[in-house]
């Protein structure tokens, strides 16, 4: 058989040539098909024109008939009212009028059907509703975006019009978010349960994202759990992600007992299916434990499932966002992660929200492909020195957010950064330093060392006075966001033989800062941002802290930066959201 090779063409072109080689009359078939399609389109257009003409004719006839009908009904009314009493109305007259009232009901029902049909047609008119000119694929994609932005109200999409309803019901993925968020005073909520079951049915076989919310006010040991357990049995086998808003739940549940709803949720989960776990219980601190391993004094959440089975479910997780409730630090949940976010709980107990350095290092080493790291714990039992060999290599790291804990013992940001060795990828870093009065000054050498081995291109800092000293260690920095700065430490006079080189910024955003103008001018003079945006700041002169008016600030800055934007509303930093979400 002769083989043919085709030059690079589109898939449609290649298919055309392939068919033409194997079908001798292929060109004739294509031409006949084209003419048939063209003829069909022409006939369809003629049919539409004819139907519109018939609609106009029927509408005119209906108008004339209605006018005549109204005139006759009014005349009959006038005639009947002329008599002295109702007795003057003949029985056959009354019977015929009564029949007509019944006919009017049927006329009204017919008119309502016509009204629905014509309004539905109007909704499809592109000039009136331009969104209806979009192909189904694009409209479906828009629905996905709406679902992601507000998954709790996705039902509204199916209530707009018949086309939207048809598209929405034909797209199972739109219904893949299952939400059960009862009122704070009511755990068993039949309406919400029915809505959740409906979403499960409409999602067909799609993986599910389950959001379960429960507060200590609405839940106790006397609650009727069976209906919610049944929902969990429907959701769990296809559960791709689980978000638990517990709101003090672990405080209201006896520690020695397993919770039946949570036990059902985890025991019915398909191993290898769960990829994301989100917990939020900011007023508590505890671990997810099982009945076979837990002690009566354990805080957190206890489930009636074997530890090995729970670990098997956790082993497929790649994203962990945890506040207040955590898998044990030795769990397989911390293996193979791409996104790890550990937030502290504000319990007031000094022993909570702490992790030993050795435990954290083991967790980080178990996820060499980590891309996103948010960390707000206090690191305890940390070593005084750290060599290159003991750092954790994370070549794919792209986003790091590190913040101080809110307790008296503040976590210094370098306690985490000293453990990390990012790769060459651009790194976005957010460093939040809370409570500078109680927090010892950061170790500048440790931070400089981290910057030297990183490619930081975006930096978001709060209350970090040492920033001017650190900037020469950030040669690739392009975006700088400053929030709540109260002081800027000036670097020592530069050595003439070894001058400092500062990054040249594309953009600098300064918000809610209170600084001396001279220090701020020095910072801007070093970095010379192309765009400088200011919002809600106060600047002072040295000495008696005399406030400087913004007009003077703008005038002095204009000699350094050509594009200064004084914002009167909070700037839109959506493109830097990865640094701001918390």
Cross-sheet strand order for the largest sheet: 1-2-3-4-7-9-11-14-16-17-18-19-21-24
Which stretches are poorly predicted, pLDDT < 50 over at least 5 residues? 1-37, 405-410, 436-440
End-to-end Cα distance, whole Å, is 65 Å
- Structural class, judged by helices and strands? alpha/beta
Strand content: 15-25%
* Mean pLDDT value: 82
Biggest sheet details: 14 strands, parallel
Count all strands and give the number: 24
Mind telling me the C-alpha Rg?
35 Å
Helix content: 25-40%
Total helices: the number is 17
Protein name: F-box-like domain protein
Pfam families: F-box-like
Organism: Rhizoctonia solani 123E
Q: What's the short story on this structure?
A:
It contains 17 helices and 24 strands. The protein is an alpha/beta fold.
Record keyword descriptors for this entry.
582 residues, alpha/beta, 4 domains, 14-stranded parallel beta sheet, three-stranded parallel beta sheet, F-box-like_dom_sf, F-box_dom, F-box-like domain protein
Describe this structure in words.
The protein has 582 residues and is α/β, with parallel strands linked by helices. A 14-stranded parallel β-sheet has the order 1-2-3-4-7-9-11-14-16-17-18-19-21-24. A 3-stranded parallel β-sheet has the order 6-5-8. A 3-stranded mixed β-sheet has the order 20-22-23. The model is unreliable at 1-37, 405-410 and 436-440 (pLDDT under 50). It is extended, with a radius of gyration of 35 Å. The longest helix is centred in the N-terminal third of the chain and has 56 residues, at 26-81.
